[in-house]
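Entry 12.
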Amino acid sequence: MTDSPQDLGKLDYEHARDELVTVVGKLEAGGLSLEESLALWERGEALAKICDRHLAGARERVETALAAAESADER
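Predicted 3D structure (tokens):
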């Protein structure tokens, strides 16, 4: 796992998603202390936000490309 918040910000979508899946698996497996569970949950929240940012950026790129294609078709 990546350790610092700065390192988290550098993760691409696929790595953030994969790490999020790992975090969820650990939480679902149970057997963790309350403190360990909270730390993993916080990490999962941070990873989910990173994934959301990447997806929002991808969505914006698609919308921009579609708008440009539509504009070109109207000429």
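Annotation: The chain has one domain: 5-74. The chain has a mean pLDDT of 93.
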